[in-house]
Specification:
GO terms for molecular function: hydrolase activity. This is Calcineurin-like phosphoesterase domain-containing protein. It holds the Pfam family Metallophos. This protein is an alpha/beta fold. It has helices at about 1-15, 70-85, 115-120, 145-160, 180, 195-205, 260-270, 300-310, 380-385, and strands spanning about 20-25, 30-35, 40-45, 50-55, 60, 90-95, 130-135, 165-170, 220-225, 225-230, 275-280, 315-320, 325-330, 340-345, 355, 360-365, 395-400, 410-415, 420-425. The chain is globular, with a radius of gyration of 22 Å. It has two domains: about 1-60, no CATH class; about 70-425, Metallo-dependent phosphatases (Purple Acid Phosphatase, chain A, domain 2). Helices cover about 25% and strands about 25% of the residues. It has nine helices and 19 strands. It has a six-stranded mixed sheet with strand order 8-7-6-17-18-19. The longest helix has 16 residues, at about 145-160. Strand 17 (about 395-400) and strand 18 form a beta hairpin. The mean pLDDT is about 95.
């Protein structure tokens, strides 16, 4: 049987096949061979590296995503700098956002570098006393075909589950593959309704250390003493198709929080009395002027946090033109006397910013994916960084610290990020 399996694997690698996925053994490890018109990709199913070849060449190339030596050295120095300031009994967690993983060997923009940045980021739990790690969304760029991006999501999931630190992955507006769909002839969805959930959230929610009301909405939280960190879903959009089979809502463009998720967040808040709370999501809820920053219910969510901070009882009502996003929920925070939502951390905007609205400190984190100067979508912030492949500013990531007295929030950045931001809360 082993001999037959080896012969079958060799045949798959040396003969032409229709587009699709084929199981085989490569270097004595289980792989999926993805066959496309112009290239083939070898996806590891347990451990092992990724390989690809551009047809008609015969040679497979290694996809370089393992931590680089110079990055390991740099992160060791970064960890020493952070260790000198933080304490083990502080709240400490690491955050990366907007990796925009794409199947491209790009030296100036999105590509394999996003996955490499993630593997390097996950060195931090071995260097610092972290309570958990988090990815704040846009795991993939969502511009590759469905098979490729589904495999990327599975690789990312294994990358997180194979390390020992608790983790959370928020959903970003690129993670439903709508960017790919808009460039197809039919514009029909390449991802099913539960593709992201099955690949990333289902294994994530199996962690004993991750607290939750349900696994339905992409919400969860971690506790450390009197501090709670809540993750919410700003890409909470219904999967509905029109008569042509096209999605009614483009997740890339419609950022939203729906009634059901808000009800679940209320349940968590009602059990969070007298706690200091940090909320994390992909996109900011409001602008620095306090206006709605999502298509639906960003300001409503912010107002709910404000009501919690004030210990109020009432009903949050918002009648949207699209009833899928109307809100009508009751809340009772009268038992809360000292609990506060003190900060909201997010990515999405591909820059750094900070502002305080109604006593809640908003902190925006920079994109991890490489954004070189010579690209139209590169933000002014990343243009200023002049980010370069194989340089320290190629990547970015953060360690978040809340001191034992719960009075000082510190954000330590590495790579294309501010080295230290500090906020009194």
């Amino acid at each position: 049987m082993k001999i037959f399996s080896k012969i079958w694997s060799n045949l798959l690698l040396t003969t032409k096949h229709k587009n699709g996925l084929y199981q085989l053994k490569y270097l004595q490890q289980p792989y999926l061979l993805q066959v496309q018109k112009k290239q083939q990709i070898l996806w590891p199913q347990q451990t092992g590296a990724m390989y690809y070849r551009l047809l008609p060449t015969e040679r497979f190339r290694l996809v370089e995503v393992q931590p680089r030596f110079f990055v390991q050295q740099y992160l060791q120095e970064f960890a020493k700098r952070v260790s000198a300031v933080v304490q083990n009994d502080d709240l400490n967690f690491a955050v990366i956002t907007d990796t925009h993983i794409k199947f491209a060997d790009s030296h100036s923009y999105y590509g394999f570098n996003g996955l490499q940045h993630l593997t390097e980021f996950l060195l931090l739990p071995t260097l610092l006393p972290l309570d958990f790690v988090a990815h704040l969304g846009d795991v993939i760029d969502g511009s590759d075909n469905a098979i490729t991006d589904q495999q990327f999501l599975r690789v990312v999931s294994r990358t997180f589950t194979q390390q020992s630190c608790p983790y959370f992955i928020a959903k970003g507006n690129h993670d439903d593959n709508d960017k790919y769909d808009e460039h197809t002839a039919t514009h029909k969805p390449s991802f099913a309704q539960n593709t992201f959930f099955n690949a990333l959230w289902q294994p994530m929610y199996q962690q004993d250390t991750l607290l939750k009301v349900s696994a339905r909405w992409g919400v969860g939280y971690f506790d450390k003493d009197e501090v709670r960190v809540i993750f919410i879903n700003t890409t909470d959009v219904p999967f509905q198709l029109d008569q042509q089979g096209r999605k009614k809502y483009d997740s890339k463009l419609v950022l939203a929080i729906r009634n059901g998720q808000i009800q679940e967040i209320i349940q968590i808040l009602e059990k969070s009395v007298n706690k200091k709370i940090i909320v994390c999501g992909h996109a900011n809820l409001v602008t620095r002027k306090g206006q709605n920053a999502l298509e639906y219910n960003g300001k409503a969510m912010h107002d709910l946090f404000k009501a919690f901070n004030c210990g109020l009882k009432g009903r949050l009502v918002h009648q949207a033109k699209d009833t899928n996003f109307s809100v009508n929920v009751a809340f009772d925070f009268q038992n809360n006397h000292s609990g506060r939502v003190v900060a909201y951390l997010c990515g999405h905007r591909h820059l750094e910013d900070q502002f305080k609205i109604d006593g809640i400190q908003y902190v925006l984190l920079n994109v991890s994916a490489l954004m070189g100067r010579n690209h139209a979508l590169t933000t002014k912030y990343n243009y200023w960084w002049n980010r370069q492949k194989d340089q320290i500013n190629e990547f970015s990531g953060y360690v978040v610290n809340l001191n034992r007295q719960n009075t000082l929030l510190r954000i330590f950045g590495y790579g294309a990020a501010t080295p230290r931001r500090q906020f009194s809360i």
